[in-house]
């Protein structure tokens, strides 16, 4: 079985991603707890914190599903496709709430953040569909989703931890 469709070959990768996403989730909670009075005042910042947590939750859950021993590849595919849909809905909704009518976000920032959110969420579902049908990039799609999820979450953490103080 090619590596793209063999979750066992990815066990170390999934383990590392589960740990990394858990650590970054902690960073988001620290950022929120330090600046909680300023964050709760603005709906857009609450939404931005939620988006970061949804993105990292997607990484953590995808990694956990990938480490499930003895799971059929198609079952993992369906799980990743469903998870991808849920992460896409949650992060896209949060992104809209964070940037829509936000005076601190200009048009280009809004477009960039929207694209980043899509690049982070959609590959989860694509990886799942690819596994179900045994064609395409398989789990390599998940790598793209994880990388963009980290970028998205780190940018949100920066705003919640540093930019909010400006």
Explain how this protein is built.
This protein has six helices and no strands. It is an all-alpha fold and 166 residues long.
**Overall number of structural domains:** 1
Q: Helical region count? A: 6
In total, the number of strands is 0
The major pleated sheet works out as: none
Shape: elongated
Question: How would you classify the helix and strand content by structural class?
Answer: mainly alpha
Rg over alpha carbons = 16 Å
Mean pLDDT: 94
Measured as a percent range, the helix fraction is over 70%
State the end-to-end distance. 52 Å
Portion in strands: under 5%
Low-confidence stretches: none
Query: What are the secondary-structure elements, in order, as H or E?
Result: HHHHHH
Could you write a compact summary of the structure shown?
The chain is mostly helical and 166 residues long.
Question: Which terms would index this structure?
Answer:
single chain; 166 residues; mainly alpha; 6 helices; 0% strand; elongated
Question: How do the helices and strands line up, and which of them pair or pack?
Answer:
Elements: H1 11-34, H2 36-41, H3 43-66, H4 73-99, H5 107-133, H6 140-161
Helix pairs in contact: 1-3, 1-6, 3-4, 3-6, 4-5, 5-6
């Amino acid at each position: 079985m090619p590596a793209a469709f063999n979750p066992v070959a990815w066990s170390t990768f999934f383990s590392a991603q589960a740990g990394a996403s858990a650590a970054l989730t902690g960073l988001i909670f620290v950022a929120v707890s330090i600046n909680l009075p300023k964050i709760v005042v603005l709906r857009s910042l609450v939404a931005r914190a939620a988006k970061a947590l949804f993105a990292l939750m997607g990484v953590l859950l995808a990694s956990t599903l990938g480490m499930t021993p003895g799971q059929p590849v198609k079952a993992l595919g369906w799980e990743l496709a469903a998870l991808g849909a849920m992460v896409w809905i949650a992060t896209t909704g949060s992104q809209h709430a964070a940037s829509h009518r936000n005076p601190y976000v200009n048009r280009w920032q809004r477009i960039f953040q929207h694209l980043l959110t899509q690049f982070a969420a959609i590959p989860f579902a694509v990886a799942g569909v690819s596994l179900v049908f045994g064609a395409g990039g398989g789990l390599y799609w998940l790598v793209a989703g994880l990388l963009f999820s980290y970028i998205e979450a780190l940018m949100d953490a920066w705003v919640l931890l540093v930019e909010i103080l400006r």
